[in-house]
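Quick one, T. Sequence first:
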Amino acid sequence: MSELVTGEAVALELRPARLPSRALAVLLDLVVALAVYVAVTIAVVVSTASLDEAAQTALSIATFVLVLVGGPIAVETLSHGRSLGKMACGLRVVRDDGGPIRFRHALVRGLIGVIEILMTFGVVACIASFVSARGRRLGDVFAGTLVVRERIPVSRTGFVPPPPPWLAGRFSGLDLSAVPDGLWLAVRQYLTRMQQLDPQVGWSMAQRLASDLADRTGAPVPQGVPPAAYLAAVVHERQAREARRAFGSGSSSSAGPAGPAADAAPAAEPASDAGAASGAYGRPPVVPPGAVSQPYGSAVESTGAAVESTGGDRPAESHEVPAGEPPGTGFVPPA
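Structure tokens:
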């Protein structure tokens, strides 16, 4: 992508066209122009057979200039930078500031194109495109123009993956007012593209973003939570708050059931769902699914309390919760 700044100080991200697509567009334009030139030349020769040789030579030169030079200039001016070949290849000629070209831009490109394309069979244009960082030939340099791509494949990178189920609601008490919009944008862009990154690079980026986000919120990242999962959970919490603010407090009542049923529901969650969600963020969760309804710090405290109550020597069977009774603290010890 190439960033162009307009006269109104607006930055435009455009993708310059490279040599293969430009060469194909020029080849198509030349085929059409030569076909028209041959047809016009035959018509001129037939209609001027009674004239002398000097007149026929003058008409031949005029036909060459009008068809092979004036024709492309007129087409680019009237179509605002889209000749037949460029339309077929999805290209367009624009000014350096991203605006549409005018007659003077097309005139300079056309006159220099006679030298670097027609007279040198495109050798000069190819060399200039290779040397230029944005693939511009000499005509573009002198005219102040740029050939860009109009048809760009749209990739599905705008979807933010949801957080793992075992992190739902754990960050409801975070203060997100000090987080700047630039950091939210960086986190969102990382989450939408993390599947395309190298695992080590993505992990280091997630750690940096999670550290910055924790510094802004004033609460550290919980132990055992992957940084990507932490980012996804905080972004999900921000979206939920924005939705409640936009649609009223009625949406908060539909976020989930209250009372004992809400505590028992996470414990009955299938293990396969939690495992699939945690695998998408790099590491399996350390906090069990029963800690869904707790704040992000209470799960660690309840874990320490459970260990202290057993003295460290009692068997694991004593930690099991009787069937049909919801856990008192919302924490289900491992079997």
